[in-house]
Write a structure and sequence with these properties.
about 450 residues, eight-stranded mixed sheet
C-alpha cells in the first residue's frame, strides 16, 4: 500500500520458523532451514533420537542453563515463577502429542507441571496431524513454544490456541488467527499472548490492514501484552511465493505492529552451569539471522520519538531481544508427534525468543497484587530503557546482513543494520537481566 498507517499508540496513555513460523532448526530428522512453519520433518519416525550430545559439548542449552543465564535461578527468582498468569500461544494446527511431550521435557529437567495446559481451537476443527511436512513443522513450532514458555515461567498456566489453516504469506491463515485472538481477548483468557509467526508486510494487501490490526487494538485496550518474533532472515524476508526472499530490506507483521512487542534474536555463549562467558551478540549464523528493520506500513509511534534518529518516520523493530541462535546456541526440546523422529532435537530462531520473553512477562504478572496483567509495555520500555533498574543489557556487536539464492539462480545479499550503543534495528534496546527486568515490569503502572 502507499504510505504508512499512523500509529494509534500515542504515548503512555495507552499504557503474539523464519518470519513466517519464525523457527530455524537443526538436528536429527530436522532441516536446518525452511519456510512456512519454519520447521520441516524429513522422514517419518523410526528410531528415537537421543538426548543431544551438544549439551555436553556446550554448544546447545537446557532450561537449567537458561534460568541461570537470565538471572532466574536465585532463591527469590525461583519463587516468582509466574503463578497466577496465563501465557497464550497461537499456532497453526498445534501438536497432538504436546501434553505428553511437555511431561517428558519437565521430567528431564526437574520442572513442575504447569498449573494447567489447556488446548482450544476457536477458529475451527484441527485437521489430523501430520499428513504434510507443513503440519509436522507447525507441530515442532508448537512444541518449542509450549516447552520453553513453560521453562521460563513454570508457575504460569499454558493456553495453546490452535488454528486450522497454515499461516504462510499474504493473509493465508490470518483470518483464523484473528478469530483466535479475538476469542482469547473476548473471554479474558490470557495475561500475555506469544506469536511465533508472521508474514512479510509487502505480501499483505492494503485492504487487510484494518481487520488485521483490530485485535491488536483490543489487546492494548484490555491490557493484554502481545509479543511476536521479529523473523529469522535478517534484514529481508519471504516473497508471496514462499520460496524467494526480497532483495531489499523488509520486515514482517505482526512484529511490526506498534501494539506488539517485537522480540529479536541474540547468541548466548554459556558455561556448563549457565553463566555467561562472553557478552551476547546479534544472532547471525548458518541457520539464519535476527529480523529487524523499518516498517513500510506503520509510521513511527510516539513511544519511538526518542529514537527517531534511528527509525526516522517509520516504526522500527525489534524492541528487545532474547536468545535465538542455532549453530551453536540452540535449545533442546522433546517431541513425539507423527512425521518426525521421536526424541530430542535442537532448535532456535526468534520462535524461541518470543516465548522466552512471554515467560518473563508472565513472571512479572505473578509478582503483582491480584496477578493483574502488565498490559502494553512498549511505551514503558522506551521511556525507561536507560534506567539501570530495568536490567537492560545493551547488545553492541553484530549485523543482520543476509545472503541467499533465489529460484532464478541469482545470489543476493541484503545489507543489514548494525548493533550499536543504545537502541538499534537488530536487537532493539538489547537483551535483559531477567530477574531485574521482571521486578521492574511488575511495578509498571
Amino acid at each position: 500500500m502507499s504510505g504508512r498507517l499512523r500509529s494509534a499508540y500515542v504515548g503512555a496513555a495507552l499504557v503474539v520458523l523464519f518470519s513466517v513460523g519464525s523457527l530455524a532448526a537443526g538436528g536429527p530428522g530436522v532441516a536446518s532451514a525452511s519456510h512456512g512453519s519454519g520447521f520441516l520433518a524429513i522422514q517419518a519416525p523410526t528410531v528415537a533420537s537421543p538426548f543431544p550430545s551438544c549439551v555436553a559439548a556446550g554448544s546447545c542449552y537446557t532450561p537449567t542453563q537458561f534460568l541461570t543465564a537470565y538471572d532466574l535461578a536465585g532463591p527469590d527468582a525461583s519463587l516468582a515463577i509466574g503463578t497466577g498468569a496465563t501465557i497464550a500461544l497461537i499456532d497453526s494446527f498445534g501438536s497432538p502429542t504436546i501434553a505428553k511431550d511437555l511431561a517428558v521435557f519437565d521430567a528431564k529437567f526437574g520442572l513442575p507441571a504447569p498449573p494447567s495446559l489447556k488446548i482450544i481451537a476457536p477458529a475451527g476443527r484441527i485437521p489430523r496431524c501430520c499428513s504434510t511436512s507443513d503440519m509436522a513443522g507447525w507441530a515442532g513450532e508448537t512444541t518449542l513454544d509450549v516447552e520453553w514458555a513453560h521453562a521460563m515461567a513454570p508457575g504460569a498456566r499454558i493456553l495453546l490456541v490452535e488454528t486450522p489453516v497454515s499461516e504462510t504469506e499474504g493473509t493465508a491463515g490470518f483470518p483464523q488467527i484473528v478469530t483466535a485472538l479475538n476469542y482469547v481477548l473476548d473471554h479474558k483468557l490470557a495475561s500475555v499472548i506469544s506469536m511465533s509467526f508472521g508474514a512479510t508486510e509487502a505480501t499483505i494487501p492494503s485492504s487487510a490492514w484494518k481487520w488485521l490490526h483490530q485485535p491488536i487494538i483490543k489487546a492494548v485496550a484490555d491490557h493484554v501484552t502481545l509479543v511476536a518474533s521479529s523473523g529469522d532472515t535478517g534484514a529481508t524476508d519471504y516473497q508471496l511465493n514462499m520460496t524467494d526472499l526480497y532483495t531489499h530490506s523488509v520486515v514482517g507483521w505482526p512484529a511490526s505492529d506498534p501494539g506488539v512487542t517485537a522480540v529479536g534474536g541474540t547468541y548466548l555463549k554459556l558455561g556448563s552451569d549457565g553463566t555467561r562467558i562472553a557478552a551476547d551478540v546479534l544472532w547471525n549464523d548458518l541457520a539464519g539471522a535476527g529480523g529487524g528493520g523499518l516498517s513500510r506500513v506503520w509510521g513511527r509511534p510516539m513511544f519511538q520519538n526518542g529514537v527517531k534518529a534511528i527509525v526516522g518516520t517509520h516504526r522500527g523493530l525489534p524492541d528487545i531481544s532474547m536468545s535465538a541462535a542455532v549453530q551453536p546456541g540452540g535449545v533442546v526440546f522433546y517431541h513425539s508427534y507423527p512425521g518426525d523422529l521421536v526424541g530430542w532435537d535442537v532448535v532456535g530462531g526468534t520462535s524461541e525468543s518470543a516465548p522466552l520473553f512471554a515467560g518473563l512477562v508472565a513472571r512479572a504478572v505473578g509478582l503483582r497484587a491480584g496477578h493483574t496483567p502488565v498490559g502494553f509495555i512498549n511505551s514503558w520500555l522506551y521511556a525507561y530503557a536507560k534506567n539501570p533498574a530495568l536490567g537492560i543489557i545493551d547488545v553492541t556487536h553484530g549485523r543482520n546482513t543476509f545472503a541467499f539464492q533465489n529460484s532464478n539462480g541469482g545470489s543476493y545479499r541484503v545489507i543489514g543494520f548494525p548493533a550499536r550503543v543504545g537502541y538499534d534495528l537488530v536487537s532493539g534496546w538489547g537483551t535483559v537481566d531477567g530477574w531485574k527486568f521482571v521486578q521492574a515490569l511488575a511495578k509498571k503502572a
